[in-house]
Specification:
mainly alpha; Growth Hormone, Chain: A; 2 domains; 13 helices; globular
């Protein structure tokens, strides 16, 4: 399941190293293309608020199956997007589908014995971190040689494979709570008001996540500046010769992942 968490979380970050290429391909400005990673993250945030709670009231195995279908279709939508606005919509839906991660972690906790729960959750969180860090390296390398659209074709195939494997091997479990959806959503507000630690943790996590994405989503723009400067014989960021070409950009992706 750690591999599934890594592969799912990676969908939130595949587009970040590809923004400059996307902008050129679709003929839009750098400012407008910046809405693409924002749409993915907004979709993920919406899923955390509106889809994650469903894991308490329905079989998570079925929910994960449905999310896998959504993620695969959204990735195919990005791959086939003819213009900016369909791409923006598909990116938002991909963020919704990536909620698989938020279903697998509590499912693992519920399936684990008290003695093994901490170890199992830590394994999944390691997979989550690996997916976040290596997603840029993977998408940057694939996009460099086969184009940015190919990244999302690969993502769709991975979503299908992961979805099928999870559906075949995850157990079905009766929901822990029977509650109408509006009441379920409103219950989160009650918990938020009752628990100060929850409010503090939510605010800290939101600020950290916002800072993280604000920094790494701009790397594609930095690469474009580097490419422009390389025509004069060296890179802005490192002073390496322009002739390093694709190899230099692959190294840049690896360094970016390590820096994260």
């Amino acid at each position: 399941m750690a591999i599934a968490v890594a592969a799912t979380a990676a969908n939130l970050y595949y587009n970040q190293p590809l923004l400059a290429e996307m902008a050129r391909s679709l003929g839009v400005s750098q400012g407008l293309i910046g809405l693409i990673p924002s749409a993915t993250q907004f979709g993920y945030a919406a899923a955390i608020l509106l889809i994650s709670p469903l894991g308490d009231t329905m079989d998570r195995r079925q929910l994960i199956r449905n999310l896998s279908i959504i993620l695969a279709l959204a990735s195919l939508g990005i791959f086939l997007a003819p213009s900016f606005w369909p791409l923006l919509l598909a990116s938002f839906v991909a963020g919704l589908g990536a909620n698989i991660t938020q279903q697998l972690i509590p499912l693992t906790a519920s399936l684990s014995t008290p003695e093994a729960r901490g170890k199992n959750i830590a394994t999944l969180m390691t997979g989550l971190t690996i997916g976040i860090l290596l997603s840029r390296t993977l998408s940057g390398s694939i996009g460099e040689y086969w184009g940015w659209r190919s990244v999302f074709l690969v993502a769709a195939i991975l979503a299908i494979i992961i979805g099928v494997l999870l559906h075949r091997h995850l157990p079905s479990r009766a929901p822990a709570v029977q509650m109408a959806y509006p009441r379920l959503i409103l219950s989160m507000g009650t918990l938020f008001k009752q628990h100060a630690l929850l409010r503090e943790s939510a605010l800290t996590g939101a600020l950290w996540f916002a800072a993280f994405n604000a920094m790494w989503a701009t790397l594609a723009t930095m690469r474009r500046l580097t490419t422009a400067s390389s025509r004069r014989g060296c890179s802005v960021s490192s002073g390496w010769p322009a002739s390093s070409g694709p190899r230099r950009r692959a190294v840049w992706s690896i360094v970016s992942a390590q820096g994260a």
